[in-house]
Amino acid sequence: MYDKVTFRIDKVNEPNLSNLETQESRLDKNGNLNFVRYKIKDVENFSVKEYCNGYSIIGSLPKLLFGDNVSMLDRHSTKEAIEKLSDCLLYDMAGAEVSALEFGINTFMRKPPKVYFSMLGDLEGKQTFTRSQRGSTLYYLPNSKRGEKSLCFYDKASEHGSMAGANLLRYELRLQNGYKRLPSILGVPTLTASTLSDRSVYCAILHLWQHMYYSINKLNQLNLKEDSMNSVKTVKDGVKLYRAIMYDEKSIDAFITLLKDNGVFKGTKRGYYNKVREQLLKDVHDVTAPSDEDIKELNTVILNAGAYA
Hints:
Layout: E1 2-10, E2 20-27, E3 33-40, E4 46-50, E5 54-60, H1 61-66, H2 75-89, E6 97-108, H3 113-117, E7 120-123, E8 129-134, E9 137-142, E10 149-155, E11 168-175, H4 182-186, H5 199-214, E12 216-218, E13 222-224, H6 235-245, H7 249-261, H8 272-287, E14 288-291, H9 293-304
Antiparallel strand pairs: 1-5, 1-6, 2-3, 3-4, 4-5, 6-11, 7-12, 8-9, 9-10, 10-11, 13-14
Helix pairs in contact: 5-7, 6-8, 7-8
């Protein structure tokens, strides 16, 4: 499910990158060398930049392995892609640090991608985001310049002329802003080319990708029962109704799985997972009629993505 990845190699390790063709050299305002851009011989979609303290290697792993980025990588094919990149560079990329990556799924939907965008509201969480729709793409962009996470939903078929008219939606998590910060965001000890295919790292990124989707307010996700509004008499009633509107059974189960993966309840409190699930389901059933089919379809796609782990 990885697409474009940015790797960093420190010159302290004296890397010997081979099989490169110089494309561009750029100087800074003082006439000193700023960077040199290289092309990897016989590889179209990867570029290499050399700076004074290291190298930056950027490209699409599925394009490298499959020739396109509609086909998706699982953990095993991710390892194959890294091995192929090492072969192309004549350099072992295993220890190269990851400073940015794109992670997501391409999925065929019943309707055009834009239909689903209209059902996705604001993204809630500790970090604030701006929802911005530009043409056939919906972004959730961090309001902080130091923000490491952003989301993108877009019409993947529009990138490929041969797929024009197909209802191919891509939902993508983008992580950026440095090799030093990403491991702590994901809760993993290190993030390198070789660990991208480790189950713990892959699942950490997958769970973050799912969690951020579930943090988006869904508009028109559930239809209210006729008398549900009449039941709101207090602040607590209003909060309960709002919370119920945001969930259906599949998203509740995914939320419980997320709690379990993070070990929220331990020991004698493990029974709390079922109690939380039962209470959320009761809140939903008390005030809602059946879910909207379109948003249920998208919820199911996100939930089932765990199969790629």
